[in-house]
Structures are given as structure tokens and as C-alpha cells.
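hi support,

uploading two proteins for the ticket. first:
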Amino acid sequence: MKYLVGATPDGTAVFAVTGENAVNLTALDPAIGPDLMALITTPGLADAVAGKIEGAPSVPLASVTPALPVAEPGTIICLGLNYTDHIKEGGYEIPDYPALFMRGKNSIMAAGAPLVRPECSDKLDYEAELMLIVGKGGRHISEANALDHVFGYTVFNDGSVRDYQRKTHQWTPGKNFDNTGAIGPFVVTPDEVPAGAAGLKIESRVGDEILQSSNTGNMIWSVAQTIATISEYTTLEPGDLIAMGTPPGVGHAKKPNPRWLKPGEVVDIEIEGIGICSSPIVDEKDFVASVAAE
């Protein structure tokens, strides 16, 4: 199944994507609610509503404004340095344990929403990433069973403010500016992609300019390994988000000059079989003014 959480005149709803159209599942069964959490936490709910989709009213996919797949994720854990060539372009040594960091809720937003370049820096970078949504939680999850804990996969742009990322040995500042992490718009269930979402083309673009192009099969730590590793130290819960790192080609490593995102551009992150996450780039002052005018 391919899901889309999006805005409607009656509030946020969960849609099933069928080609270029979308069926409002929340309207078919109010138990589904305004985001994916009910489907994540209620076994059998997806199967119950699936039988109602055929012949149900639909709307054009383009008419749905995306919202976050999980409105209030408990934990957002991101994996850094997970593609060998990206590690080399950043000047790091290849680690023997994944570089893990966390994002706060104010740093993320839905696909299609503005990605905000902050007033204090012009070094806004892009990072194309696979993201998974935890279905079944747990602690000390084995690698062999880890994929059973995945509800679905989506697309993530880990927008990074590079000068702030490098101010300390911890990456927290550069990875947590408000409205810099775009998620979505689609979530696909594991049966729609290869095991662990491996072997999928992953790309970032601005217009016809290809910025990154790689394959999720090139990840050092697989989805299963990452879940097992993280659950060694913390209990994963339904609806948690895990981002799987970015391939080479990021802006700060471009030669001879870095390639920063600029207001007026639209950056697209695409993962084969999942979808495209598009974000218009805006300056913080313009974003604040637009919000104030609403």
C-alpha cells in the first residue's frame, strides 16, 4: 500500500494512493484518524479498510496538500556517514559504529512546505535519505527480526546548515534549525519495495541539475542492522522515525566551490518506488512574513 497524509476541508486525513488519484481512508473508516498512527498501532485496521477502497470516491492526487505522515513522532533518529563515498568527501574516517544523532520536532516539516534558510547562515545543504517509520516497537531487536518492526518507508531531506554543524563535535545545531527536514509525501509499506528498501535509486535535484545519484544498496549499515543497533541502547516505539544517511554529492563537498541551496530554488529528493519529496527554498525573514500574513 502507498499512503499519503494530507489536508482536506474537514481536516487532515489518510489517503490510499491509486495511480494519480487518492482515496480518503479516514472518511471510509473514522478509526483511521488524521495520520498514520492508528494504522501503525492497530493490527488488522489496514486490512479492514483495504476492502473498502475499490469503488470508493477518489480525488486527484495533486489536489491533496501533504502533511507529516506521523504528526507527533516520539523520537527522530538519524544515521550519518552511511555511504562510503560520502564519508570520504566529508574528510571522515570510515567508522566501525554508525554516527547517530537526533532531530527535534520543530526541525521537520511535510514535503512541499518551504525549507527555510536561516538568517544566520547561507550554507544550507541538502541530503537525500531513505527514512523508515517504526511499526512494532521494542528493545534488543535482533537483526534477523528487525524488518518485522518496519511499518513503512518514506523520503527525507536532511537539510543541514553546515557551518553550524561543524561548530562542535556534536552535529546538533546544524541538524536542528526549524523547518529544514522535509518528510514524505508518500509512505509505502514493506511489501511494495525490496527487503529493507535496498537496491533503490536515490537522487537529489534542483531542476535539471542532478546533485546526488546513488543506490540504497550502497548503504554501509542496512535498515535491519540499524534497527538492531539503535535498539541496543533505547526502546523503539511505534511511529518513531529513523533516517538512513545520505549518499555522496552533498553541496559542501562540491568542487571547486560548495553548492548551497538558494531562495527561489526547489530541491527534489527522489527514491525509486517511493516518491519525490519537493521543497521550495525560502529565506527565514520571508517565511516569517508569510506565516504572519496568514
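and the second one:
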Amino acid sequence: MSKPTAPAPSLEVSGLAYAYPDGHQALFGVNLTVARGERVALLGPNGAGKTTLVLHLNGILDAGAGTVRVAGLPVEKHNLAEIRRRVGIVFQDPDDQLFMPTVREDVAFGPAASGLRGAELEERVTEALEQVGMEGYANRPPHHLSFGQRRRVAVATVLAMRPEILVLDEPSSNLDPASRRELADILRSLDVTVLMVTHDLPYALELCPRAVILSQGAIAADNRTQDLLCDEELMRAHRLELPFGFDPRSVTMGV
């Protein structure tokens, strides 16, 4: 009796290189594998290539060289509809994602565009809002919500597509401490792969057991988040700084 085939990793990036039309080389042979259900922080200084890498994950940018696979599926033109369902990106500013008159309509937009209708669509919307604790706000206009509430709705718009990978761009930015904690609790509860692009190193340590440092278009380090943040020489070399007085060794790592 043959053994069952192991599921493909959520993300496989191999030899990814990319230069912009002006000739600027943003990525140099990036290799990265992220297993199903992992939470990984993508760290690095401004200009390191983090955004360029993320834009390859759902085909917004075409690989100049190398390959990107999502759940075993190559990120290629004929796969883009399925890839964009599987890779959900939550932007830093929720107002870039929320444009409908009500929260319900915003969350329904993606699934409806994919062909869902009626009870199935309503179920998908309700499920996504419940996942982020916003089910009581379905009929509210998004612009009447607090910034933290809008960010949770933005996450719900992506979860409504039932993605394989949730990519978060600076998820803790501009949040008050309570909203920051609430979002962390939500992210821990989700059964998806998470790739978090952030400069908030304590938040990365709190939520992501693993971290990758991208610097000058290449991966400079890939290890346990706590180990990376405790390496003062590595941090200094890649312009990463912890908040004053914060000691990563004092944090008890959870799952």
C-alpha cells in the first residue's frame, strides 16, 4: 500500500530574480519555502525587496527569472484567477480595500465576482465576519468604523475568498494597543498560512515563530524569530532595530 502524498508547501519560491523596467534589480535569486499553516515574518529595511517579492505571489509582477508556486500551482498567466483566490493580500491602509456602501457588500464583493450567489454567498460573508469578530457590523458603512475595525473588515474581505495564504502588509501599523492585541488574537485563530511583512519586530516575535530577513534583494537570514532578533550583529547589519528597552530573550514563545 503506497503512502499518502504529502501536501505541497503553501509557497515555493525558487531562484526568483526581478529587475524593474528602469533597470533597478530588486530581487537576486530568492529561495523560500513556507509550509501549510506556518506563520512567517518577512523583515528587512526599506528598499530590501519585500514588496517586490509579495507582488510576485499572486502574479501582479511576472518573474524575470525563477519560479513561484502556490500550493504546487505555478504562478503563471493561465493560473492567475485561481492563484489570486489562494493568495489574499491585506494592504497597510484598509481604505485601499474598502469601497462599498456597507461592510457586508465589501466582504461579499470578491466571492460574488467569483460567481457565488444567494445563501452560499451569505454564508461566506457571515463566516468571514465572524472570523474577525465583526459580524455585528455587517450593515454599517465602513467609513463609520474605527481604523482598527476597518482593518479587521479588510482581513474579512480576503478571508471570504478562503485563501491558502494570507499576506499582511504592516498589520499592526496605526493600531491602538487594544486593537493590536485583538488583531493578534484573530491571526492566531486562523487556519491559513500567514506571511507578515512588518517593521514591528515585537509583533513579529509575538505572532510568527519563523522570520526571514530580506536585504538588498536577497535572503540574508531564515531562522526562529527569537534567534534572529537576539543576534545583535545581524540586526545591525540589516538596519533592524528593536524598541528601546525591549528584550526578545524575555518573551516566552507561543504557537
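thanks. also noticed: The longest strand covers residues 25-34.
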